[in-house]
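Design job #97: recover the sequence.
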């Protein structure tokens, strides 16, 4: 696909993309450890994982800036250059919201009785986390397929859109459970968990936006 959208090779850009995507996927995959640690009530580990996510997000930011500079220097059809930048904004937001979600959950340790209440719908939270990770991995696969098989990349992008709809249903289920238990939880804990769920949903939303950009890029390139 690069040959269709660039008049000269995008030297180094693909390598930078791979590195950036690997960092973003790593930051999101750590949400699994974060959820597991919170469910077991190990808030020291929750804070540790949140810090690791923040460190990876900063590293991803640095790599994103280097990639953007190379994109600006590359000779690419102007409309698609803008799409590349939009794509990287969405990818960067995935890592950013992953960091925000982890920090929201790590902001304070709930009381022991509250953790027991929250664990009552821990399975749904794990399902949402796993789905979010899956969506980000599919976006990564779609981007890496752009240069090999545009049809397969398009299929992956469409799968992300379908997954995001399922994650919306899970989110609503968790929020209903949280609202049901609102009076049994402190206001701070209620808001803490609600914010975590909303920010986790924003990770999925950013993945969907990235899938929309990928679709547009494939259509524009005529691949």
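Job complete. Output follows.
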């Amino acid at each position: 696909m690069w040959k269709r959208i660039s008049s000269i090779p995008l030297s180094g850009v693909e390598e930078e993309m791979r590195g950036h995507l690997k960092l973003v996927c790593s930051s999101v995959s750590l949400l699994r450890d974060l959820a597991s640690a919170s469910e077991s009530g190990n808030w020291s580990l929750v804070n540790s994982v949140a810090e690791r996510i923040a460190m990876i997000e900063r590293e991803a930011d640095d790599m994103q800036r280097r990639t953007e500079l190379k994109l600006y220097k590359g000779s690419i059809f102007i409309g698609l250059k803008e799409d590349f930048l939009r794509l990287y904004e969405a990818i960067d937001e995935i890592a950013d919201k992953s960091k925000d979600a982890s920090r929201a959950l790590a902001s304070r340790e709930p009381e022991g009785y509250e953790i027991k209440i929250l664990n009552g719908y821990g399975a749904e939270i794990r399902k949402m986390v796993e789905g979010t990770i899956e969506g980000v991995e599919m976006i990564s696969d779609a981007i890496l397929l752009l240069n090999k098989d545009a049809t397969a990349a398009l299929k992956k992008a469409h799968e992300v859109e379908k997954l995001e709809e399922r994650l919306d249903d899970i989110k609503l289920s968790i929020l209903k459970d949280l609202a049901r238990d609102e009076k049994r939880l402190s206001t701070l804990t209620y808001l803490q968990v609600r914010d975590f769920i909303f920010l986790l949903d924003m990770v999925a939303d950013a993945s969907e936006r990235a899938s929309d950009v990928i679709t547009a890029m494939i259509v524009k390139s005529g691949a």
